[in-house]
Write a structure and sequence with these properties.
The protein has 154 residues and is mainly α. The chain is built from nine helices and no strands.
Length: 154
């Protein structure tokens, strides 16, 4: 199966709030700036999904995008894939909140971060485990290389 379709199916199965968090962070590194610049979260998620499934890509372009996305998704999930990572993020957000308050710029960042902390933490950790299983299965280097060489040998 086309590796971008594997990624798209994995992404589409996720909770909307997690997809929003993810795309908000990952979009900064995408070559398609329109995703990062989109303010409406539903539209941002839709644009990212469209970025994943582009039927006009050549096999080489699918491979390039797949390899980039494998790194980007792993990078974005890093620190959110374990209880320890979430505790570091909590402490970091708490420190940022203290600094902002001391500067008279209380924007409620920590309260917002903590609002649904346990639920988000649980979902992100599960999502990261699913991603790890994909990297060891359908998205292993061997499997995507096999897909690519099958496509170019036709």
């Amino acid at each position: 199966m086309n590796p971008l379709k594997v990624i798209a199916e994995w992404f589409d199965q996720q909770d909307a709030s997690i997809k929003g968090d993810f795309v908000g962070m990952a979009a900064h590194f995408l070559l398609d700036n329109s995703i990062e610049l989109e303010f409406d979260m539903d539209e941002k998620i839709k644009k990212f999904s469209t970025y994943l499934i582009n039927n006009s890509l050549t096999a080489k372009e699918v491979m390039q995008r797949t390899m980039f996305l494998k790194s980007l998704i792993s990078f974005t999930l890093d620190g959110r894939s374990s209880k320890e990572g979430w505790e570091r993020a909590r402490k970091m957000n708490q420190e940022i909140d203290k600094k902002l308050k001391s500067e008279g710029r209380d924007i409620g960042a920590y309260d917002k971060f903590m609002k649904d902390y346990q639920e988000r933490k649980t979902k992100w950790i599960a999502w990261a485990k699913e991603w790890g299983a994909l990297l060891n299965g359908n998205l292993s280097d061997k499997n995507i290389a096999d897909w690519y060489f099958t496509k170019i040998s036709k």
